[in-house]
What does this fold into?
Amino acid sequence: MTYLMGIPWTSFTQAASRMNMYTPRRQDVLDFLLSRRSHPSITLSEPGPSENDLDTVLTAAARVPDHGKLAPWRFIIYRGEARQRIGDRLLSFAEEKEGPFEAQRREQELTRFTRAPVVVGVVSRAAVHPKIPVWEQQLSAGAACMNLINAAGAAGFAAQWLTEWYSFDPDASRFLGCGDEERFAGFVHIGTPTQPPTERARPVLSDIRVDWSEA
Ligand SMILES: Cc1cc2nc3c(=O)[nH]c(=O)nc-3n(C[C@H](O)[C@H](O)[C@H](O)COP(=O)(O)O)c2cc1C
It folds into this structure.
């Protein structure tokens, strides 16, 4: 038995548990989650997160449930001038496959990575494992994306999770840094919002929840 000032340590932990010291209600966090929403990437502008902020939000993104502690995800950062070069290359990949584009579609491809100041590619590196299903590893990558969005919001930025065609195109994915056994869970665009987001319809809770009962 461990004692502190002559009192058994378990007495402290039991008292703390009764007072719920381990998980106090965080109304600010609940309010944040209940009002959060994505901001379209085209409405995001400078400034993006500083190096420090980026480290913080990525650390939060990596703090997700991860069965087997495999870290089945990693992050690729796209920022600065490189984003224009990415647009040039995405345009050529897309035109090679779909033929020459008119001005509007050209512009769309050229600006894919310049809409927000910082884009984080979340790479799923789920792989066959003797104990941990690939599905669980992929879910963990999705959780990392969501933590990243929420952490960016908590740090004072807005974000949007996009996949778009290049997440599903092997050549473009490889160009964007994905390995042969990896795939993008998405690209989280992060920046400062230029306008308030409009609300969108949400599922009615009673349509999507049920108390289980045996059929
Ligand atoms: C995995 C995933 C991929 C997405 N990819 C795209 C996309 O390529 N293009 C798009 O317009 N929206 C895409 N979205 C939807 C945007 O993230 C959208 O802004 C979001 O669903 C808005 O909901 P929210 O306000 O609750 O965050 C994607 C969403 C998810 C979860």
